[in-house]
């Protein structure tokens, strides 16, 4: 009997030790953020785009939530990413424009996730001029990056060129990390940062002809005369005057650096198309409004062409999550650093607090919290990214973060905005302001002092500045009071000093 018990005891001891060493999979949700650059709401079919179908991005709206009132707090590439990471306005995270260097050592959401046992990763466009910190893995484009055969700065410090189209290459690297390089026993937070559809809008060779037979209607405000809006009239971002024939629209651009970096097959396909575009332009020799509208059509064809690849690659990532059995426990976010002008007011680019650039796309699939097909109409802004990520990961939100969770039970009544980069490219004057569900009050400064007030219900195109209209006096005073409260709440001392100087 004793001899029989000994092997049994050894067996139980072995099993017990095995159980002690077994590491159960962490059931906290994974978080995957798909973050593009300059993606206008008007170019997403889930938001009602008249221009393009984006079935894969739309899938997130169908299976999760579409946010109708998501706003940026400073409509510019690098500051928006800094806000995403820190949950703070530009004046608090120190990154007000594209010209300064981000303090990547400050506390931000990936640091807290790492401490809590999450794997963190950022792949693709980073655009913060410093080495990423608090990421277990990163591989980022230098600066804006290239559309064709992009370079990547690796954790080793080396810069490595990857052959292919940037959107495909970035997705390939992300899927490689998800498939083989991460620790599958831990939850992850991955940001896939796409270059497109940033200027100068170079579609993949397979998408060059996608919109050749489409004639895009001019926006109603394309020939805006900017009456009553001084700063709008001073900008330098019009399709008609600012957009360049060679660098932006690829007329006679065969010798440009971005063409020279292509491989032979890419260059052959590219030149076969754009040599034809150049020949067509020279044959028509458009002038006046015919030239303006030719430029607009080419702009739209190229801009939307880059989004076709973006949407395909969003689909690749969603398909991977399905096949890997990760979809039910992965929160997927699609957004962009800000909105963009597709000819509204005659413009491209962003920067202004006006609707097209102030609005950001935001779609979230969160199977454990969000009912499919949800439309969220509450006001949110991009300081809310970091608190939402931490809350969903079960991590306490630091008190110095200025945003709140997208799922907060006390939604905002308004959102605050402050733009700083002036004088600089596109000449958009510094300004700050407040937007409610109906009204917008903006203060321009630093090159003349101007106020603007818009009633978005009666004037959604923001053509009529009502600031001096006596009929809006009561609304103006209410908005000014609310603006001052937000300035104090967010401790924007620069804006406070400007108002105090005016006796407000």
Describe the structure in your own words:
- By secondary structure, this protein is of the alpha/beta class.
- Helix content is 34%, strand content 15%.
- It is globular and about 65 Å long.
- 46% of the residues are buried.
Radius of gyration: 25 Å
Globally, the shape reads: globular
Total number of helical segments? 14
Helicity range:
25-40%
What distance lies between the first and last C-alpha atoms, to the nearest angstrom? 94 Å
Largest sheet: 10 strands, mixed
* N-to-C SSE string, H for helix and E for strand: HEHEEHHHEEEEHEHHHHEHEEEHEEEEHH
Task: Trace the largest sheet across and list its strands.
Answer: 7-6-5-4-8-1-9-10-2-11
Strand element count: 16
Strand-residue proportion: 15-25%
Runs in which pLDDT lies below 50 for 5 or more consecutive residues are 1-23
Mean pLDDT: 95
Look at the helices and sheets and give the structural class. Answer: alpha/beta
Topology:
Layout: H1 2-21, E1 30-36, H2 55-63, E2 65-67, E3 70-71, H3 77-86, H4 90-93, H5 109-115, E4 119-125, E5 137-141, E6 151-154, E7 159-161, H6 166-181, E8 188-193, H7 230-234, H8 257-260, H9 264-284, H10 288-323, E9 330-336, H11 355-358, E10 362-365, E11 374-376, E12 380-381, H12 385-392, E13 414-419, E14 431-436, E15 439-444, E16 450-455, H13 473-489, H14 493-501
